[in-house]
Amino acid sequence: MIVVRGIGIDKNFGAEPVLSQCSISLQKGEIYGLVGINGAGKTTLMKILLGLQRPDEGIVELFGKEPDEDRGYLLKIGSMIERPVFYEHLNAIEILEMHLRYMGKEASVSGMLDRVGLYHARKKPVSSYSLGMKQRLGFARALIHRPELLVLDEPLNGMDPVVAAEMIQMLKEAAQNGAAILLSSHMLGEMRKTADRIGVLTGGCIRREITEKEEIRDHPQEMEEELVTLMRGGVTDEKTV
Ligand SMILES: Nc1ncnc2c1ncn2[C@@H]1O[C@H](COP(=O)(O)OP(=O)(O)OP(=O)(O)O)[C@@H](O)[C@H]1O
Protein backbone atom coordinates (compact mmCIF):
# COMPACT_ATOMS: atom_id res chain seq x y z
CA MET A 1 0.00 0.00 0.00
CA ILE A 2 1.34 3.41 -1.02
CA VAL A 3 1.25 5.88 1.90
CA VAL A 4 2.57 9.00 0.19
CA ARG A 5 3.22 9.82 -3.40
CA GLY A 6 4.55 12.91 -5.18
CA ILE A 7 4.07 12.97 -8.93
CA GLY A 8 5.81 15.33 -11.36
CA ILE A 9 6.58 17.98 -8.77
CA ASP A 10 8.10 21.29 -9.88
CA LYS A 11 9.20 23.95 -7.41
CA ASN A 12 11.03 27.17 -8.21
CA PHE A 13 12.21 29.88 -5.86
CA GLY A 14 12.32 32.98 -8.03
CA ALA A 15 14.26 32.08 -11.13
CA GLU A 16 15.89 29.12 -9.41
CA PRO A 17 14.37 25.72 -10.17
CA VAL A 18 14.77 23.45 -7.16
CA LEU A 19 12.54 20.51 -8.06
CA SER A 20 11.80 19.57 -11.61
CA GLN A 21 9.38 16.76 -12.48
CA CYS A 22 10.28 15.06 -9.21
CA SER A 23 8.41 11.88 -8.32
CA ILE A 24 8.64 9.71 -5.24
CA SER A 25 6.47 7.18 -3.45
CA LEU A 26 6.66 5.33 -0.16
CA GLN A 27 5.08 2.05 0.80
CA LYS A 28 3.73 1.05 4.18
CA GLY A 29 6.48 -0.42 6.36
CA GLU A 30 9.43 0.90 4.39
CA ILE A 31 12.27 3.21 5.33
CA TYR A 32 13.19 5.45 2.41
CA GLY A 33 16.49 7.32 2.65
CA LEU A 34 16.72 10.58 0.75
CA VAL A 35 20.24 11.77 0.00
CA GLY A 36 21.63 14.74 -1.92
CA ILE A 37 24.15 17.53 -1.57
CA ASN A 38 23.38 20.73 0.36
CA GLY A 39 20.69 22.62 -1.49
CA ALA A 40 19.60 19.63 -3.59
CA GLY A 41 16.00 20.14 -2.48
CA LYS A 42 15.48 17.41 0.12
CA THR A 43 13.81 19.67 2.68
CA THR A 44 11.71 21.32 -0.02
CA LEU A 45 10.48 17.94 -1.24
CA MET A 46 9.64 16.86 2.31
CA LYS A 47 7.73 20.08 3.00
CA ILE A 48 5.75 19.65 -0.21
CA LEU A 49 4.85 16.04 0.64
CA LEU A 50 3.65 17.20 4.06
CA GLY A 51 1.62 20.08 2.63
CA LEU A 52 3.80 22.70 4.31
CA GLN A 53 4.72 24.16 0.93
CA ARG A 54 2.82 24.17 -2.34
CA PRO A 55 4.43 22.83 -5.49
CA ASP A 56 4.28 24.98 -8.63
CA GLU A 57 3.23 21.87 -10.54
CA GLY A 58 2.53 18.29 -9.65
CA ILE A 59 0.37 16.24 -7.34
CA VAL A 60 0.76 14.92 -3.82
CA GLU A 61 -1.31 12.00 -2.57
CA LEU A 62 -1.42 11.07 1.10
CA PHE A 63 -3.01 7.80 2.17
CA GLY A 64 -4.35 7.21 -1.32
CA LYS A 65 -5.93 10.59 -2.00
CA GLU A 66 -5.12 14.24 -2.47
CA PRO A 67 -5.03 16.02 0.92
CA ASP A 68 -8.50 17.27 1.80
CA GLU A 69 -9.69 20.40 3.51
CA ASP A 70 -10.35 18.93 6.96
CA ARG A 71 -6.69 17.89 7.31
CA GLY A 72 -7.59 14.83 9.40
CA TYR A 73 -4.63 13.08 7.77
CA LEU A 74 -2.33 15.19 9.96
CA LEU A 75 -3.16 12.93 12.90
CA LYS A 76 -1.53 10.05 10.99
CA ILE A 77 1.72 11.91 10.34
CA GLY A 78 4.80 12.55 12.46
CA SER A 79 7.48 14.90 11.24
CA MET A 80 10.57 16.82 12.13
CA ILE A 81 11.65 19.33 9.50
CA GLU A 82 14.70 21.47 10.11
CA ARG A 83 14.87 22.49 13.79
CA PRO A 84 11.99 21.40 16.02
CA VAL A 85 10.07 24.24 17.67
CA PHE A 86 8.63 24.01 21.20
CA TYR A 87 6.99 26.08 23.89
CA GLU A 88 10.31 26.45 25.65
CA HIS A 89 8.97 27.18 29.13
CA LEU A 90 7.39 23.71 29.22
CA ASN A 91 9.31 20.58 30.15
CA ALA A 92 9.64 17.40 28.07
CA ILE A 93 6.83 15.57 29.88
CA GLU A 94 4.42 18.47 29.35
CA ILE A 95 5.34 18.77 25.69
CA LEU A 96 4.82 15.09 24.90
CA GLU A 97 1.61 14.88 26.97
CA MET A 98 0.21 17.94 25.18
CA HIS A 99 1.12 16.43 21.82
CA LEU A 100 -0.57 13.11 22.67
CA ARG A 101 -3.73 14.93 23.75
CA TYR A 102 -3.77 16.87 20.48
CA MET A 103 -3.24 13.69 18.49
CA GLY A 104 -5.86 11.79 20.52
CA LYS A 105 -3.46 8.98 21.40
CA GLU A 106 -2.06 7.36 24.53
CA ALA A 107 1.53 6.24 25.04
CA SER A 108 4.18 6.01 27.72
CA VAL A 109 5.83 9.41 27.92
CA SER A 110 8.42 8.20 30.45
CA GLY A 111 9.25 5.21 28.27
CA MET A 112 9.79 7.41 25.23
CA LEU A 113 11.94 9.91 27.15
CA ASP A 114 14.02 7.04 28.48
CA ARG A 115 14.62 5.70 24.96
CA VAL A 116 15.79 9.04 23.60
CA GLY A 117 18.00 9.65 26.64
CA LEU A 118 16.02 12.55 28.11
CA TYR A 119 14.50 10.91 31.17
CA HIS A 120 16.99 12.62 33.50
CA ALA A 121 16.02 16.03 32.06
CA ARG A 122 12.29 15.36 31.84
CA LYS A 123 11.31 18.06 34.36
CA LYS A 124 13.60 20.80 33.10
CA PRO A 125 12.24 23.52 30.82
CA VAL A 126 13.14 22.98 27.20
CA SER A 127 14.78 26.41 27.17
CA SER A 128 17.61 24.81 29.19
CA TYR A 129 18.19 22.02 26.64
CA SER A 130 21.16 21.78 24.32
CA LEU A 131 20.55 21.62 20.56
CA GLY A 132 21.05 17.85 20.58
CA MET A 133 18.55 17.44 23.43
CA LYS A 134 15.96 19.49 21.52
CA GLN A 135 16.61 17.35 18.47
CA ARG A 136 15.98 14.21 20.54
CA LEU A 137 12.77 15.66 21.94
CA GLY A 138 11.64 16.56 18.42
CA PHE A 139 12.32 12.99 17.38
CA ALA A 140 10.33 11.68 20.36
CA ARG A 141 7.41 13.97 19.52
CA ALA A 142 7.41 12.80 15.90
CA LEU A 143 7.21 9.14 16.94
CA ILE A 144 5.23 8.96 20.15
CA HIS A 145 1.76 8.92 18.59
CA ARG A 146 2.74 5.98 16.34
CA PRO A 147 2.20 7.77 13.01
CA GLU A 148 1.55 5.90 9.78
CA LEU A 149 3.85 8.30 7.95
CA LEU A 150 7.05 9.69 9.47
CA VAL A 151 9.02 12.40 7.69
CA LEU A 152 12.33 13.25 9.33
CA ASP A 153 14.77 15.79 7.95
CA GLU A 154 18.28 14.92 9.12
CA PRO A 155 17.14 13.51 12.49
CA LEU A 156 20.57 12.07 13.25
CA ASN A 157 22.34 15.40 12.84
CA GLY A 158 24.57 16.07 15.82
CA MET A 159 23.57 12.86 17.62
CA ASP A 160 26.27 10.89 19.40
CA PRO A 161 26.69 7.29 18.17
CA VAL A 162 24.85 5.78 21.15
CA VAL A 163 21.76 7.93 20.66
CA ALA A 164 21.94 7.55 16.87
CA ALA A 165 21.95 3.75 17.19
CA GLU A 166 18.91 3.86 19.49
CA MET A 167 17.07 6.19 17.13
CA ILE A 168 17.77 3.88 14.18
CA GLN A 169 16.45 0.96 16.21
CA MET A 170 13.28 2.94 17.00
CA LEU A 171 12.79 3.75 13.32
CA LYS A 172 13.16 0.10 12.38
CA GLU A 173 10.58 -0.86 15.00
CA ALA A 174 8.18 1.79 13.70
CA ALA A 175 8.60 0.44 10.15
CA GLN A 176 8.03 -3.12 11.38
CA ASN A 177 4.81 -1.87 12.91
CA GLY A 178 3.75 -0.58 9.49
CA ALA A 179 4.92 3.05 9.35
CA ALA A 180 6.29 4.47 6.12
CA ILE A 181 9.39 6.51 6.94
CA LEU A 182 11.05 9.17 4.80
CA LEU A 183 14.42 10.12 6.18
CA SER A 184 17.09 12.49 4.92
CA SER A 185 20.68 12.36 6.08
CA HIS A 186 24.19 13.19 4.98
CA MET A 187 25.48 10.26 6.99
CA LEU A 188 25.70 7.66 4.25
CA GLY A 189 26.89 4.94 6.60
CA GLU A 190 23.88 5.40 8.89
CA MET A 191 21.59 5.58 5.90
CA ARG A 192 22.95 2.33 4.56
CA LYS A 193 22.28 0.62 7.89
CA THR A 194 18.77 2.04 8.15
CA ALA A 195 17.07 2.42 4.79
CA ASP A 196 15.36 -0.24 2.70
CA ARG A 197 15.57 2.04 -0.32
CA ILE A 198 17.82 5.02 -0.99
CA GLY A 199 16.90 7.78 -3.46
CA VAL A 200 19.45 10.25 -4.79
CA LEU A 201 18.02 13.73 -5.34
CA THR A 202 20.10 15.65 -7.84
CA GLY A 203 19.27 18.10 -10.61
CA GLY A 204 15.75 18.52 -9.23
CA CYS A 205 14.61 14.91 -9.30
CA ILE A 206 15.39 11.47 -7.97
CA ARG A 207 17.93 10.18 -10.46
CA ARG A 208 18.52 6.80 -8.95
CA GLU A 209 16.94 4.55 -6.39
CA ILE A 210 18.88 1.73 -4.83
CA THR A 211 16.27 -0.78 -3.82
CA GLU A 212 17.87 -4.13 -3.22
CA LYS A 213 18.59 -4.71 0.43
CA GLU A 214 21.67 -6.73 -0.47
CA GLU A 215 22.97 -3.90 -2.60
CA ILE A 216 22.52 -1.44 0.24
CA ARG A 217 23.83 -3.56 3.09
CA ASP A 218 26.38 -5.95 1.58
CA HIS A 219 28.48 -3.65 -0.59
CA PRO A 220 28.97 -0.59 1.59
CA GLN A 221 32.08 0.74 -0.09
CA GLU A 222 30.76 0.48 -3.65
CA MET A 223 27.38 1.84 -2.67
CA GLU A 224 28.73 4.90 -0.88
CA GLU A 225 31.09 5.67 -3.77
CA GLU A 226 28.20 5.41 -6.21
CA LEU A 227 26.03 7.68 -4.07
CA VAL A 228 28.73 10.33 -3.90
CA THR A 229 29.22 10.20 -7.69
CA LEU A 230 25.49 10.53 -8.25
CA MET A 231 25.14 13.39 -5.77
CA ARG A 232 27.88 15.24 -7.60
CA GLY A 233 25.70 14.95 -10.69
CA GLY A 234 27.64 12.04 -12.13
CA VAL A 235 25.97 9.81 -14.68
CA THR A 236 25.31 6.13 -14.29
CA ASP A 237 23.38 3.83 -16.58
CA GLU A 238 20.59 3.50 -14.02
CA LYS A 239 17.01 4.63 -14.28
CA THR A 240 15.56 8.02 -13.48
CA VAL A 241 12.52 7.59 -11.25
N1 LIG B 1 11.83 29.72 1.10
C1 LIG B 1 12.84 29.74 0.23
N2 LIG B 1 13.08 30.84 -0.51
C2 LIG B 1 14.08 30.86 -1.41
N3 LIG B 1 14.90 29.82 -1.66
C3 LIG B 1 14.70 28.70 -0.94
C4 LIG B 1 13.66 28.60 0.03
N4 LIG B 1 13.71 27.36 0.59
C5 LIG B 1 14.73 26.71 -0.02
N5 LIG B 1 15.32 27.52 -0.94
C6 LIG B 1 16.44 27.14 -1.82
O1 LIG B 1 16.10 25.92 -2.43
C7 LIG B 1 17.24 25.10 -2.55
C8 LIG B 1 16.96 23.76 -1.89
O2 LIG B 1 16.89 23.94 -0.48
P1 LIG B 1 16.58 22.73 0.49
O3 LIG B 1 16.60 23.28 1.87
O4 LIG B 1 15.36 22.04 0.03
O5 LIG B 1 17.86 21.78 0.23
P2 LIG B 1 18.39 20.54 1.06
O6 LIG B 1 18.70 19.46 0.07
O7 LIG B 1 17.46 20.19 2.15
O8 LIG B 1 19.75 21.12 1.64
P3 LIG B 1 20.60 20.79 2.99
O9 LIG B 1 21.23 19.46 2.77
O10 LIG B 1 21.59 21.89 3.04
O11 LIG B 1 19.63 20.81 4.14
C9 LIG B 1 18.41 25.88 -1.95
O12 LIG B 1 19.09 26.52 -3.00
C10 LIG B 1 17.71 26.88 -1.06
O13 LIG B 1 18.48 28.06 -0.95
Automatic annotation (TrEMBL):
Keywords: ATP-binding, Nucleotide-binding, Transport
Residues annotated as domain ABC transporter: 4-228
PROSITE patterns: ABC_TRANSPORTER_1, ABC_TRANSPORTER_2
InterPro entries xref list: AAA+_ATPase (IPR003593), ABC_transporter-like_ATP-bd (IPR003439), ABC_transporter-like_CS (IPR017871), P-loop_NTPase (IPR027417)
Gene Ontology MF terms: ATP binding; ATP hydrolysis activity
One Pfam family from the record: ABC_tran
SUPFAM superfamilies: P-loop containing nucleoside triphosphate hydrolases
Assigned protein family: Belongs to the ABC transporter superfamily.
Protein name: ATP-binding cassette domain-containing protein
Species this chain originates from: Sellimonas intestinalis
Organism taxonomic ancestry: Bacteria, Bacillati, Bacillota, Clostridia, Lachnospirales
